[in-house]
Amino acid sequence: MKEIKIKGMTCQHCVMAVTKALNSVDGIKNVHVDLKTGTATYEESKPVDAALVKSVIEEEGYEVAG
What whole-number distance in Å separates Cα of residue 48 and Cα of residue 14? Predict the structure, then answer.
């Protein structure tokens, strides 16, 4: 299970946008985004480039912390 910190999420719409973005990445499954903690967790069915994960989140207007 991978976990990333995301800055800028303020509502359920933000959670849905990040969830949809992560689900669009080939190789990512079982996405869970937690607004309260500002984290997203997911599993990889095959190796996924961390830069790609960061990119799809940033395209939605959020910042990956760390």
Answer: 22
Within 8 A by CB and 6+ apart from 57, the residues are 4, 6, 18, 21, 22, 40, 63, 64
Helices (H), the chain: 12-23, 50-59
Model confidence, pTM: 0.94
CA 41 – CA 28 distance, rounded (Å): 10
Q: How many C-beta neighbours within 10 Å does residue 48 have? A: 17
Whether residue 66 is predicted with pLDDT greater than 80 in this model: the reply is: no
Per-residue model confidence as pLDDT tens digits over 18-51: 999 999 999 999 999 999 999 999 999 999 999 9
End-to-end CA distance of the chain: 17
